[in-house]
Amino acid sequence: MCMNINWYPGHMKKTKELIRDNLRLVDVVLELLDARIPISSKNPDIDGIIGNKPKVIILNKSDLCDPKILRQWIDYFAMQGTEAIPINSISGEGMNNLIDAVKNSAKDKIEAMRNKGRKIRPIRVMIVGIPNVGKSSLINKLAGKKTAKTGNKPGVTKGKQWIRLRKDLELFDTPGILWPKIQDENVGLNLGFTGAIKDEILDRDELCVKLIEKISFKYPDNLKERYKIDKLDEDPVINMESIGKKRGCMRSGGIIDYSKVSRIVLDEFRKGILGRITLEEPGDL
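-> structure tokens emitted (285 positions)
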């Protein structure tokens, strides 16, 4: 599967400039990653853009990932000198820990203002991340009300906006931003699996085959249990066909409806119906 993806809409280029132009206004950068693919969902351009600005990593969708590997990722980022906070932006789990981490990261700035006799203003944060990683849901949960437009398609949040989350916290929101060319096939696949790249620009059937292949290797029992398959085959296409037969995804003449199988498997993985699955580990680096 050719994954040399060149998908860089105009608003993403503008977002990169937006981050650069407004970085000086913020105290802490919040980098939002998908806990199932922390490296693949990390835009490699971000660190270069934000430089030495204090940063907190947020591992969103922690409810969908393998808890044992999540702990490994938290330790990994700690070794890199950055605190990583697991959250569920839908339920709100982890929000208090996130607020504490933001306050801790901004304490030097606040103390400097206090020493100068200046009025203590709200902490200003900027949230950055790739499309479809849950930024809008996170903002709404932090604010306690619906303040940002949300959607399940990459790139739904556009433009810029300052949002008063609480009396002590203001947020500069930015749209999701990918990097100009995704050349690593594994990264491209992971982004496709989680929906960070629009399905319309990928071969969804082939993407599904690759996902089945990966889950068969890492979490075979999840597939067997969900789709009532006694034994997985070494060939992921045969496993895809087995799923199709079990789910009645058949056309006339006994032909497998691969498109229907693809929709089912990708949707059930993305929603966590296939179980708590993490697709990459620190040991893979």
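Confidence is low (pLDDT under 50) at residues 148-159.
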